[in-house]
Amino acid sequence: MPEPGIMPRVSGFTLVRNGVQFDYPFEESLRSLLPLVDELVINVDPGDDTTLDRIRSFATEAGNSPDGAPRVKWFESKWPLHDPEKKKGGRILAEQTNLALDRCTGEWCIYLQADEVFHERDRALIREALRESHGRPAIEGLLFEYVHLYGSFDVVQNSRSAYRREVRCIRRSSGARSVGDAQSFRKADGTKLRVAACGARVFHYGWVRTPEAMKSKTTFMDTLYHGDYENGATEPHTGDNYRYKRFWGLEPYAGDHPAIMADRIRSRGWKWDLRGSPLAWVPSDLVKRALDLVERATGWRPFEYRSYRLADRSRLGLWAAPRAKCPNPDAPAASIIVCTYEMPWHLERVFAGLERQSTGDFEVVICDDGSGAPTSKVIAEFTERMRGELRVERCWQVNQGYRRARILNEGMRRSRGRTLVFIDGDCVPQRHFVRDHIERQESGRYLAGRRVECGPRFTDALSATEIRSGMLDRPSLRFLASIWRKDSEYLNRTIRITGGWLRRILGMERVVDLKGCNFSASRVDLFKINGYDEAFIGYGREDGDVELRMKNLGLRIKSLKGLALQYHLWHPRRAFTPANDARMSETESTKRVRCERGVDA
Question: What rounded mean pLDDT belongs to the chain?
Answer without folding.
Answer: 89
